[in-house]
Amino acid sequence: MSEASAPGWQGILASDERILWQGQPDRRLRIGVGELRRAAPGLFFVAFSLFWMYNAARSSVPFALFGLIFLVIGLRKLVEPLLLPAYLRSRSWYTLTDRRAIVATDTPVQGRRLISYPIDAATPVEMVDGDPPSILFGPDADAGFRFIPEAEHVLGLLRELQRSNAPRPETTDPETQPE
């Protein structure tokens, strides 16, 4: 059975397309400076709504309960940037073929999504240090295989793929050249 007809790949790969590598990102929760920066407005929202609810409860309990809406919004803004990236990684699969890189996700809200990035000599490819490292490619900073243990191996495969997909210079036969 060819890889293109393997279960789950029907209609996705070309009949002569070969899978070079498949993997999943590391699923660990990662909280860095970027995530904390994105969560900071949520922390402010939560603190302000709690302060407001406490002071409003001293005069009118029903009026204080109105603050629950803002508390929930703040909690979502606080927790989402911290937990959502790890959840999305746990629902992602990566594939490198002899033509392209594929990032597949399956989430309850968005369903199944498949994004394909053609790989050729002009495709920017960058390895980003981390534990484990990430390989970025494509037109934007979000495209890539994030936190993969086999990053060095995959980078080698990508570089080899770029070389094989590079335009070939035209060769000339010196005997047929006009003098």
How does the SSE layout of this entry go?
Layout: E1 19-23, H1 33-57, H2 61-65, H3 67-90, E2 92-97, E3 100-107, E4 111-118, E5 125-128, E6 134-137, E7 144-145, H4 151-164
Antiparallel strand pairs: 1-2, 2-3, 3-4, 5-6, 6-7
Helix pairs in contact: 1-3
Describe this structure in words.
Keywords: Membrane, Transmembrane, Transmembrane helix. The chain is an alpha+beta fold. The chain has two domains: 98 residues, Pleckstrin-homology domain (PH domain)/Phosphotyrosine-binding domain (PTB) (PH-domain like, Roll), CATH 2.30.29.30; 56 residues. The chain has four helices and seven strands. The chain is elongated.
Please sum up the structure shown:
This protein is α+β, with helices and mostly antiparallel strands. Helix content is 38%, strand content 21%. The N and C termini lie far apart (54 Å).
Radius of gyration: 25 Å
Order of helices and strands: EHHHEEEEEEH
Envelope shape: elongated
Low-confidence segments: 1-6
User: Looking at this structure, what is the CATH superfamily of the largest domain?
Assistant: Pleckstrin-homology domain (PH domain)/Phosphotyrosine-binding domain (PTB)
Taking all residues together, what is the mean pLDDT?
87
The number of helical segments is 4
Q: How many strands?
A: 7
At CATH level 3, the topology of the largest domain is PH-domain like
Backbone structural class: alpha+beta
Biggest sheet strand order reads 1-2-3-4
Helix-residue proportion: 25-40%
Tell me about the biggest sheet? 4 strands, antiparallel
CATH architecture of the largest domain: Roll
